[in-house]
Write a structure and sequence with these properties.
- It is a single chain.
- By secondary structure, the protein is α/β, with parallel strands linked by helices.
- The strands form 2 sheets. A 7-stranded mixed beta sheet has the order 3-4-2-1-5-6-7, with helices on both faces.
- The protein has helices at residues 19-30, 57-64, 75-87, 102-112, 155-167, 188-197, 214-225, 259-268, 280-287, and strands spanning 11-14, 35-39, 47-48, 51-54, 68-71, 92-95, 118-120, 126-129, 133-136, 145-152, 172-177, 203-209, 230-235, 272-274.
- β10 (145-152), α5 (155-167) and β11 (172-177) form a beta-alpha-beta unit.
- The protein folds into 2 domains: 1-122, Rossmann fold (3-Layer(aba) Sandwich), CATH 3.40.50.720; 142-292, Succinyl-CoA synthetase domains (Rossmann fold, 3-Layer(aba) Sandwich), CATH 3.40.50.261.
- Keywords: Ligase, Nucleotide-binding, Tricarboxylic acid cycle.
C-alpha cells in the first residue's frame, strides 16, 4: 500500500501549460503516473503530451474522473485554484506553489474544514509513492519501493534522506512533503495517522525544522498512539534566533522552537532523533532490526 497517492490516482494538473506545470507533468508521466487531465483557463480543447486540457476543474473531473490535483499556478491565484479543486470534489489537492499569502491560507484552511478532502502544501514538493504514483516535483531516480514512510517540512532534506535510505536498500512506501509555510493544509500528525494505518509502512522518518511547535505535538501523538517506529531529524541546530531560515515558518522565536529543544522533546517521547541527516538511514536500519550500514 501507500498513502495519499497510489495506483488508483487519476491526476489532474492545474496550470499544466505553464513553465513549471509543463516541465513537471512530463516528469510525472515519465514516472508512470496516470495524468488524466490538465486545466488552464482559456486553453480548453487543447492537449499537452497527449493529456486533454480543460478550462475548469469541474469539467475536467466530469470528463476524466480525476481524483487528485497538483497545482502549479502563480501565488496570487493559488487559493482560488485550491477552492476550485475542492468544489469539484477532488479528494487530494497538492499545492506546489510558494509565496501564497498567509491570509489566503487562513481562509483556505477554514474552507477545507467543510470538505472531505486533504490539502498538502502549499510551498511543498508533493507526494511520491515509488512504483505507484508521482504527484510531486521530487526526483524519481532516488526512490525505490519499500516500507519506509517519509514526512517532511523540507524538500531538499527529503531528497537527501530518501537517497541515503535507497542506497542502503531501504525503499519507501510514500514520501510526503507537507511544506514549510506557517499555515499549511496537512500537518505531521495527520500524515502520521495515515502511515500508522498503512500495513506496508514499517518505519516512518519525520523531518522537521525550527519554528512553531508542530514537532512537539507530533512527538506527543507518536508516544500515545503509534506502534510503527519513528526516526526524526530536526534541521537548524546552528540557526540564529530571530532569523528566518529558508522557509517562512522556519524561524526561532523562543526556546522551545529550536532544533535542540525539539530533538530533546522527541527523545523524551522515545523517538530516535538524529543529530545530522546522514545519521537517519542508520537509525532506520536499527529500528527495523537490520544490520547497520
Amino acid at each position: 500500500m501507500a498513502i495519499l497517492a497510489d495506483e488508483n490516482t487519476r491526476l489532474l494538473v492545474q496550470g499544466i501549460t505553464g513553465r513549471e506545470g509543463a516541465f513537471h507533468t512530463r516528469r510525472m508521466l515519465k514516472s508512470g503516473t496516470r495524468v488524466v487531465a490538465g486545466v488552464t483557463p482559456g486553453k480548453g480543447g487543447q492537449s499537452f503530451e497527449g493529456v486533454p486540457v480543460f478550462d475548469t476543474v469541474s469539467r475536467a473531473v466530469e470528463e476524466t474522473g480525476a481524483n487528485t490535483s497538483i497545482i502549479f499556478v502563480p501565488a496570487p491565484f493559488a487559493a482560488d485554484a485550491v477552492y476550485e479543486a475542492l468544489d469539484a470534489g477532488i479528494e487530494v489537492v497538492c499545492c506546489i506553489t510558494e509565496g501564497v499569502p498567509v491570509h489566503d491560507m487562513m481562509r483556505v484552511t477554514d474552507y477545507l474544514r467543510m470538505r472531505d478532502a486533504t490539502l498538502i502544501g502549499p510551498n511543498c514538493p508533493g507526494i511520491f509513492s515509488p512504483g505507484k504514483a508521482n504527484v510531486s516535483i521530487m526526483p524519481a531516480d532516488i526512490f525505490s519501493p519499500g516500507g519506509v514512510g517519509v514526512v517532511s517540512r523540507s524538500g531538499t532534506l527529503t531528497y537527501q534522506i530518501v537517497n541515503e535510505l535507497t542506497q542502503i536498500g531501504l525503499g519507501q512506501s510514500t514520501a510526503v512533503g507537507i511544506g514549510g509555510d506557517p499555515i499549511i493544509g496537512t500537518d505531521f500528525i495527520e500524515v502520521l495517522k495515515k502511515f500508522e494505518a498503512d500495513p506496508e509502512t514499517e518505519c516512518v522518518v519525520m523531518i522537521g525544522e525550527i519554528g512553531g511547535n508542530a514537532e512537539q505535538r507530533a512527538a506527543e501523538y507518536i508516544k500515545a498512539k503509534m506502534e510503527t517506529p519513528v526516526v526524526a531529524y530536526i534541521a537548524g541546530f546552528t540557526a540564529p534566533e530571530g532569523k528566518t531560515m529558508g522557509h517562512a515558518g522556519a524561524i526561532v522565536s523562543g526556546g522551545e522552537t529550536t532544533a535542540q529543544a525539539k530533538s530533546e522533546a522527541l527523545r523524551r517521547a522515545g523517538i530516535r532523533a538524529a543529530e545530522n541527516p546522514s545519521e537517519v538511514a542508520r537509525l532506520v536500519a536499527e529500528a527495523l532490526g537490520h544490520e547497520s550500514p
